[in-house]
Design goal:
Number of strands: 27
Number of helices: 19
Radius of gyration: 24 Å
Structural class: alpha+beta
Distance between the termini: 37 Å
Helix content: 25-40%
Strand order of the largest sheet: 12-13-14-3-15
Strand content: 15-25%
Length: 639
């Protein structure tokens, strides 16, 4: 998705320096759910669940739930340890400018602050609408849409040995740190490279300077950038001004990413990602124990004041993340532990598909939540359009258009929990995302495929005897079953699929020849089945969907796995990103969506409601769309 990308929920990182955030969905889904006190959440298969696929409901519906054993008064309870459990560590030692996967977002909510952020709300609309965080108000924007001015709160403090205020220079330093080569490879700099004046040149120079061996050299480079990058100015300690290369209606959403968190000057004294580095907090909790590969413990930050934070709370005493379960059995073990009250939340796993029916029936389990992830497409099939195999057949749009009719999307959805939480998708941009307008260029009865039409169109394209395709498929979670369905469906229209299992992190690995130009043209693979989730779910999330996976103008290698490039699509992406209104941007995103499907660049399978769970002792479990998990700064526990 990611797009928001993450291990287990989404895995994979962009190997190129300025890639946008990318991901490959693993296991059952991108694990998104929503909760909050004060309502009733209907079962997965209910009409409420089905209605949440309808984008018209996203602007009006309130998604909420009522936990069992809710405090009679509804008042928060102080104390206790919130326990998360899973099977993988963070990717960058919790450094806000280095972390890339969504599991990090769950914790970063507790120890980082951004200029603007997302409130916790049982209303999906409110939860996806930005509010001031470290800033006193939303920015003042110039009439030409190029200059954004923020004023910082005066009561925001670092938990340094002697607590001190967070300054505008700390925020400038944090954003510039994204370009530090010692934090690469990740896609974190990409959104700032494409929007802030002078940022691309700064990042390029930083990468070329190769200062990895010297903290002093890195500090000098970043300090010089704070003075020289035209698009980031700090006239005083409480004011930060951004100047853009062109208008960007999603710029505040980009500033809400954890990559834009403040960084104290102490971070300049050491090499990032080095064991033993101290991470300072300006949020309600601070990381006080980090046992790599085993456990992360957060405790209350004494320097944080509730009066300084309108978004977060400090209810539990401690947040404990255990992450050393066996990978293949982790989701089942975590689910059992949560139902037994020995764990409270999933860390990197999701509700096992096999467990969902038992949680739905015969009575609704209030610990289960299922909610939309607008713009997600998981999984989908991507074509290597540069493959020389079969005489370059996949470079022929008529061949790809024929194969669009092959997949039984209803059967595919059964691997992910069935029709109650999966809806067939026939385009790039899914329900609720910016630019979504429903259309289907390759219809079949009940979305179950049309093998006869697939076969006849292949013959018309010059392949009456079919073709043979190499499929690199992931060897974990539902992916072997996805491969088998693709293989079976393609066989019905005369296409033979030969599979090669690959490790989950394969897409993000370097040097493996999948996404490099030479790898694509070598024909090592013809098709593969990644997945995608946007980096954010607000009404301006188009930039984090279509261009990330299908914009050929982005440099190789990246998340355009199959090497697709259509100048018409690239032009529409450019227009969408430069649009001065949300409606204009949405129109360009829709046009790009239509063009991509005309080109048959990939085969979408489905969009999903996402399922996560919490233990019976958890209260006020409000879903935070950005982190795709319950907001740990809102939870209190049964005493």
């Amino acid at each position: 998705m990611s797009a928001r990308i993450k291990l287990s929920r989404i895995v994979g990182k962009a190997p190129r320096s300025f890639a946008k955030r990318i991901g490959v969905v693993a296991f059952a889904a991108v694990a998104v759910a929503a909760c909050g006190s004060g309502g009733t959440n209907a079962p997965l298969g209910s009409s409420q669940g089905a209605d949440l696929f309808n984008p018209t409901n996203f602007s009006t519906s309130t998604v909420s739930w009522l936990a069992s054993n809710q405090n009679a008064s509804g008042r928060p309870v102080q104390g206790g340890t919130l326990k998360l459990e899973g099977s993988t560590d963070l990717s960058a030692a919790a450094d806000p400018q280095g972390e890339y996967e969504t599991i990090a977002d769950t914790l970063e909510r507790a120890y980082t602050r951004q200029l603007v952020s997302y409130p916790s709300s049982t209303s999906l609309v409110k939860a996806e609408s930005l509010v001031p965080d470290a800033a006193t108000a939303m920015p003042t924007v110039s009439s030409d849409g190029l200059t954004y001015t923020f004023t910082l709160r005066s009561d925001l403090m670092w938990n340094t040995p002697t607590p001190r205020p967070v300054t505008s220079q700390d925020f400038a330093r944090g954003i510039l740190r994204n370009c530090d080569p010692t934090l690469a490879p990740n896609g974190n700099p990409g959104y700032y490279v494409s929007t802030i004046q002078g940022f691309k040149a700064f990042c390029t120079a930083f990468e070329n300077s190769n200062p990895a061996e010297s903290p002093a050299a890195r500090a000098t480079f970043i300090n010089n950038g704070m003075a020289s990058v035209a698009g980031i100015k700090t006239p005083d300690a409480s004011t930060i001004v951004f100047t853009l290369t062109q208008p960007a209606v999603d710029f505040t959403s980009i500033l809400a990413l954890p990559f834009a968190s403040a960084a104290p000057v102490e971070y300049m004294k050491y090499t990032p990602l080095t064991p033993g580095n101290i991470l300072y907090s300006d949020g309600p909790y601070a990381i006080t124990t980090y046992n790599v590969g085993h456990e992360i413990i957060l405790t209350r930050n004494a320097a944080w004041m509730q009066s300084s934070d309108t978004i977060r709370h400090q209810y539990v005493n401690e947040v404990d993340v255990k992450m050393d379960l066996a990978g293949s059995a982790a989701s089942t073990q975590v689910q059992e532990d949560m139902q037994a009250n020995t764990a409270d939340l999933e860390w990197n796993t999701v509700v096992p598909t096999a467990s969902i029916p038992g949680l739905e029936k015969p009575t609704w389990n209030p610990g289960l939540g299922t909610f939309p992830a607008p713009g997600s497409t998981n999984p989908y099939l991507v074509f290597n359009v540069q493959s020389p195999n079969n005489g370059g057949a996949l470079g022929n749009v008529k061949v790809r258009q024929a194969l669009e009719y092959a997949i039984d999307k209803v059967a595919m959805g059964k691997f992910y929990g069935g029709a109650s939480i999966n809806q067939p998708l026939n385009q790039v941009i899914g329900p609720g995302a910016e630019g979504y307008v429903q259309f289907n260029d390759y219809p079949s009865t009940n979305n179950q495929g049309n093998p006869a039409k697939c076969k006849s169109l292949l013959a018309a394209a010059g392949y009456p005897n079919g073709i043979t395709l190499k499929d690199y498929y992931r060897n974990s979670g539902n992916h072997p079953a996805v491969f088998q369905e693709v293989q079976s469906d393609f066989q019905k229209c005369g296409v033979t699929v030969v599979g090669t299992p690959i490790a989950t992190g394969y897409y993000g690995s370097s040097g493996i020849g999948v996404t490099s130009p030479s790898g694509l043209k070598a024909g090592k693979w013809d098709i593969t089945e990644p997945g995608w989730g946007p980096d954010w779910f607000s009404p301006t999330n188009g930039r984090s969907i279509l261009p990330d996976i299908l914009d050929g103008a982005l440099s190789f290698p990246g998340s355009d796995w199959g090497g697709f490039d259509d100048p018409a699509v690239d032009a529409l992406v450019t227009q969408a990103e430069a649009a001065t209104t949300i409606s204009a941007a949405a129109n360009y995103w829709h046009q790009a969506d239509v063009q991509v499907m005309k080109d048959a660049a990939f085969i979408p399978f489905q969009t999903q409601l996402q399922a996560i769970y919490h233990s019976p002792r958890v209260h006020n479990a409000i879903y935070l769309p950005f982190s795709e998990q319950y907001d740990i700064t809102q939870i209190w526990l049964s005493s």
